[in-house]
Amino acid sequence: MAKTIQFKVEKDRVLVPVGEACSFGCKYCYTRGGEVGPPKVKREEILHELKKFSQEAKFGLIQFGYDGDPFVRPERGIWMLQELAKLGKHITFSTKALIDGSLLEQLSTIQQEMASQKTVMVALISVSCWESAHRIEPHTPTPSERMMTVSNLKKVGIPTLIALRPLLPNIADEEYEHVIDEGIRASTDGFILGPLYGDVKRRFVRFIPTDMLEKTPSVIESVSWSAHEPTWIRYENTSRSQRMAQMIRAKRSQVLLSSADVIEFVQRRKVLV
């Protein structure tokens, strides 16, 4: 179990923890035990350690929110984003929260301040199902509310993508097509696809029927994007991912296979537009 704050540079990015457990409690959540980041740590300590790390390491992107959701407690997430923005790096944050009202206004202000520094903030809104959300993500804002978040962020000029991750073996393609259609309707800038993770004790994947899970190609590997590098089972049906990608492109939207590519994608899109 992770007990200390650690950072590492991978693909020009550094993952920064929220430092609090997420109360959304999605059934596939791998952050519940602190394996990928410290389960509880003061926000000031995270920023202090990151500033020290940034004096020694070279990187261009801060990826915020991999160990929990920044906006389970919005006041914590906003404070941390305000401080992170001062470091002069590009920032992505990942959330399932409903963002509107004063929270939206504060994010818009951060984005404007970052633009003056020639840096970019990008939102990644996680959606892994639609009709099944009441079973798999019962304590989380609904998919419809998350689409409102996409629309709201886009209206204030914050680039926003939908993270279709993890792609769940027990969710039908038709349900993912519903997510994709709703995302396009909400004006998302694109979609990011990603695998499902479990461990040898089958935590995070127990809700998936055994036969479906066993049919999904898997590999045991060290999770390189976490500084704590837990060894987990990565479940990923590449042919299905390709099918999802083809569906998205056929609907004239964009597909990314890693959040590490988000900033380059957004910058290139701005140039093209």
Outline the structure in words.
The chain contains nine helices and eleven strands. It has helices at residues 43-56, 74-85, 101-116, 133-136, 143-155, 173-185, 210-215, 238-250, 262-272, and strands at 9-10, 13-16, 61-64, 90-95, 121-126, 160-164, 191-193, 196-198, 218-222, 231-235, 255-256. The strands form two sheets. The protein has an eight-stranded mixed β-sheet, with helices on both faces. Strands 8-10-9 form a three-stranded antiparallel β-sheet, with no helix packed on it. α2 runs parallel beside α3 (101-116). The radius of gyration is 18 Å and the shape is globular.
Give the SSE order as H and E letters. EEHEHEHEHHEHEEHEEHEH
Major sheet attributes: 8 strands, mixed
Name of the level-1 CATH class: Alpha Beta
Strand order of the largest sheet: 1-2-3-4-5-6-7-11
Distance between the termini: 45 Å
- How many domains, in number, for the residues? 1
- If classified by CATH, what would the architecture be? Alpha-Beta Barrel
Proportion of residues in β-strands: 15-25%
Number of strands: 11
Can you count the helices?
A: 9
**CATH superfamily descriptor:** Aldolase class I
Class by SSE composition? alpha/beta
Kindly identify the CATH topology. TIM Barrel
Question: How does the overall form come out from the CA principal axes?
Answer: globular
Q: Mean of the pLDDT scores?
A: 92
What portion of residues is helical?
Answer: 25-40%
pLDDT < 50 stretches: none
Rg over C-alpha atoms, rounded to the nearest angstrom: 18 Å
